[in-house]
Design brief:
The protein has two helices and no strands. The chain has about 50 residues and is mostly helical. The chain is elongated and about 45 Å long.
Length: about 50
């Protein structure tokens, strides 16, 4: 499991336990997904640049 999967599970747990509402859940998941995508793009750029 990578760090983004762990973060998503943590947010899902907070939602299921009633600690956050659906709007907050959606916003947090969106932020995690965007952060993961950004990191993937940076890693790809580093790979392409070092080849």
């Amino acid at each position: 499991m990578n760090k983004y999967e762990v973060l998503r599970l943590s947010v899902m747990r907070q939602y299921v336990e009633g600690k956050i509402n659906r709007i907050t859940f959606d916003a947090k998941i969106k932020m995690i997904n965007e952060q993961e995508e950004k990191e993937k793009k940076n890693e790809a750029a580093k790979r392409d640049g070092s080849s």
